[in-house]
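User: Could you check the structure of this?
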Amino acid sequence: MNEIGLIGKKIGMTREFYKTGQSVPVTVIKFDKGRVIQVITKDKNGYNAIQMGFGKIKNSKLSKQMKGFFAKKNTEPKKRLKEFRVENIENFKEGNEFGIEIFKDTKFVDIRSKTIGKGFAGAMKRHNFAGLRATHGVSISHRSHGSTGQRQDPGKVFKNKKMAGHMGDKIRTIQNIEIIKSDLDNNLLYLKGSIPGSKNTEVLVKKSVKNLRKLTMLEKIEKMNLITLKTKQKNEIIGSTSKIYAQKGTGNARHASRKAPIFVGGGVAHGPKGQTKHKIRKLNKNEKKIGVASLLTKKIKLNDLLIFNDFSKEIKKTKEIFSLLNKFHAKNSIMILDKSSRNNILKATRNIPNVKCTDVNHFSAFDIIKYKKIIFTETSIKELEKRYT
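Assistant: Sure, the predicted structure tokens are below.
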């Protein structure tokens, strides 16, 4: 059903709030049910498509030809008729009606609508020209676009030259607009951001053509996990408050101290709030213990926790340790050993990739997540129990 689209009316703009408190500007579009007027087949017309009708219209406003067309199809008159190319016409029959439920599993859509007409506009408004200088000799042509032609050869103004003219009132297509919310009861679709056109403008909405992996607004908020931090004030910056150049005689412009925001590390008096990507918070001892205990429990359930006898002093070579780890499929592992075993094994494991050797006092929850297998000795398990009980 995503091959077809719907034509709706732009009601206006509002905003929606996520649970995080983030405000998102949205454009609200009202839809009526679209009805299949006729099915166009490849055998008869050379291509597969369906013709859909949208909106209501009085019989008195129809031509005789259109009255006969709708009477033949045995359906009520529709204001707009639109064809959609489809691959399989078996899914559609004359008289079927479709609403915004066709966008149920769609996150991004393409829209097409007509921009607001601005009438005849000058070059500055229409093309963002800078205009002429507002100085002596320019007379009253400050907002003109300047010269447009060439010399006697070719002696004309080329087509498509950026000049004053009719502005707006053009069909525009915008791709990959996010659907923030859909109201099935009232046939309303809330699309992120602005959409070309004024109130009551007809808008064609279809599923996005480009198969891009684009994050939704909510996914962006969750990924960034933004928090606001206070910007540094001038009184919080260490340094001299004296001006960097003398008032006269240096040849340099007078400037403030190094505390000014123009310099790296400078502060502002009333600046905006900064943002950081990740929230960093130190955990207390109890939280660390709970985290390590839960991760170790998960490793036991996955059979990724191994307990060896205390390593003897004879195992010192890298080959011996490597063969032992291969035997238990522990190529990616962290070895949490007691002091005596650690001193023997440390040199043997330092050249083996993805293997870390440490003791009970020097491993964290991050190490348990990073490495697939966790290896303990009998003595190190007893030391762990003493520490975490």
